[in-house]
Structures are given as C-alpha cells and as structure tokens.
Amino acid sequence: MSRKICVVTGSRAEYGLLRFVMQGIREERLLELQVVATGTHLSPEFGLTYREIVDDGYDIARRVEMLLSSDTPTGLAKSMGLGLIGFADALAELKPDLLVLLGDRFEVFPAAAAALVARVPVAHISGGETTKGAFDESIRHSITKMSHLHFVAAPRYRDRVLQLGENPENVFLVGGLGADCVRMTQVLDRAELEERLDFELAPRNLLVTFHPVTLDEESSKGQMIELLAALSSLDDVGLIITLPNADTDGRVLVGVIEEFVRGRSNARAYTSLGQERYLSCLHHVDGVVGNSSSGLTEVPSLHKGTVNIGDRQEGRLKASSVIDCVPERQSIVKALRMLFSEGFQESLSTVRNPYGEGGASARIVQVLRDHPLEAILKKTFHDVAP
Fold first, then answer.
1. What stretches of 130-219 show up as alpha helix (H) in DSSP?
2. Are residues 146 and 258 in the same domain?
3. pLDDT tens, 289-340?
4. Are residues 364 and 331 part of one domain?
5. Considering the domain boundaries, does residue 125 fall inside one?
C-alpha cells in the first residue's frame, strides 16, 4: 500500500526548491503525491504562479485561498487564520499519511497547526536555521516543534533541531535543496534569456531581490530607497529586479521599485521570473544583490558573488562569496565595488557552498518512502546532554 505524501507550497521560491522532491515522490511507486497550493500561488497580484506547477505536469489536489489584499500585520494575521480554516478542510479531505512543509513562511504555519490537531505527521525541510531580521525564524522553530521528521541542510542546523528536543533518529542531514535546483535545472542561453525577459543584458549585470525586513525597527521602504540610490549610479550595469514577496509592507516596496525602473533602459522589474528564468539569470549575471536566502544557499554553487544587505539572513551559514553590508547607500556602494573587483571575481572559482553540492531531494524521498511512521505522533522531548 502506497503512502500518501502531501506537499504544501505557497510561493514561487518555495516551489522551485520543492520541485525535485515532488518529482521524486511522483516517480516512486510506493508513494502517492498530493499537492496543495496556497499563498501567492493563487494571487493575480503575484502572477498566479500555481500555473507553473500545472505546466510542470503536477495535479493540484487542493487550493487553499488565504492571502488577503493587505500587507499590514493585521492583514497577514487574518490571512493565517483563513489558511488554518482552509488546511483543516484540505487535510480532512485528502487524508495524507505525511505532510511535507518547507521553511518558515507564514503561509505554511497554518498547515502545520492544522496537521497537529488532525493527527497528520509533518516532515519539515530546512529547520534549525536562523534569520535574525525576520519573524520567519520564530515560525521556523515553531514548525520544528510541530513536526515529526526533520530534513536539515548542515550539521549546525541539525544541532539546533536537537537542541529543540527532537529525536535524533528522526533528524536527517540531507544538505540544501538549492544546490539540486542549480545542478538539475536546464538553463537558457544568453540570447534565449534576453528574449524571455524582453530585456537586453548589458556587459555587466546584477540580479536584485530585496524582501521586507519584518522585525527591523527601520522601515523596509527606507532600506529599499538606500539600495536603489546605490544602484542608480550603475548606468552601465543591467539590473534585473524581482519584486518582493507577500510580507509586511511588501506592496510599499513594489511601488518604490516600479518608480525606480520607470524610464531606465538598464533596469526591469518582474513580478515572478519562474524557476527557469531565475536560475538562468543566476548563470548569466555577475552577482546578486539584496537579502534573499537564495544568495546564500544557491548562488555559491554557481561561483557567483552575493551582496547581502542588512540582517534578514543573519545567523545563516555563508560562503566566502557573500559580502555583508548594512542597508545604507555608502555601505552598499562599497560592497558593489568589492563584488566587481578583479581580485574578488578571481576568488570565486574556489568557493564551496556550505549547503552542499546536491542530492538532498533524493535523500528526502528515500526517507519519506522508508522511515517507519508507527507511533511517530507521540513525541518525547529529548534533552541535550550537559
């Protein structure tokens, strides 16, 4: 009898990381894949990215509408409430044997909470990581405590999950999923990418992604203005800007970005690049700029540099290709100069990704297939020995 494995995805970036796990589940004869789409996937404002899932050949078993047209704290909290209602219904209908969740987004927290009371075991990917500048960290650790199987990307993250009292027998060091995406996705050549972007690349190019800093005392808008001021002097550099996700104040940042690219021939903003265009951009640009986790987990595998702004990703493992700076224009300008410098560019050839170089997806699927689930719901807190 096959196990029903329900995978929840709520955003474009999350689906890109889960795609090869989903493929492995679908190809495994002892597993049955169920896909639930939620969050920005179902929002016209964010590009209706559930269509990418369908285009990749996956059936969406349920769609959980939860995202309100509001990026205020009240709006996000209400969205989470709607998500809890929707996931309660979805789990009752699908009756999965295991629920797979990735990361720390507010869209997946209601899925974990609904599974907890529905007595559905949860397999959590990317636990144990820290992100000082966002409330995602608290969500991530909360999901860890509601989960029963844990797939972590590095030894330090495994130690944190154990510190939270999880059973060592249920914590698996598999590496990061980002390296799989880099290794297994066929990318576009430069001419094809320019055609798909409707944008002519310059001799030097940057991919820019800056998300709201949900726990920072300074406004995300102010930090975005500082970033764009630093980029404004790069007239000879092509700027491919991805719009932010659905966090607090995200819509404010969209307005600032759209004003910046208006009238600039060297800059273009995109609601959603999709996995193929995004990874193709990573191959062809000279570096990435912003505060996305992709700059830390995926980009090092391509031997490209990352300018990491602010403390949104503080606490995560970082390769030597990551240049940290504060969200002030002069600090960002200094980091950009370092990124483009000949010495730094030469050093990138020897960079190693601390999240591994691939294979995480296959390791996860093997555990989903083989690990016993009997009595797994009744967890005992495992104390770390003094």
1. 136-145, 155-163, 177-184, 190-197
2. no
3. 999 989 999 999 999 999 999 988 888 899 999 999 999 999 999 999 999 9
4. no
5. yes
- 233 lies in which domain range? 185-350
- Supply the pTM of this predicted model: 0.86
Sequence length of the chain is 386
- Inter-CA distances, 8 with 79, 127, 146, 167, 277, Å: 16, 16, 15, 24, 23
* DSSP H helical ranges for the chain: 12-27, 50-55, 73-94, 109-118, 136-145, 155-163, 177-184, 190-197, 220-231, 250-261, 274-284, 294-297, 329-340, 342-347, 360-370
Report d(CA 359, CA 170) in Å as an integer.
Answer: 19
What's the token pair of residue 69?
Answer: 């047209």
**85-94: pLDDT as tens digits:** 999 999 999 9
Mark whether 279 and 206 lie in a shared domain: yes
Burial tier of 70 (Cβ tally within 10 Å: 0-12, 13-18, 19+): middle
Has residue 68 been placed in a domain? yes
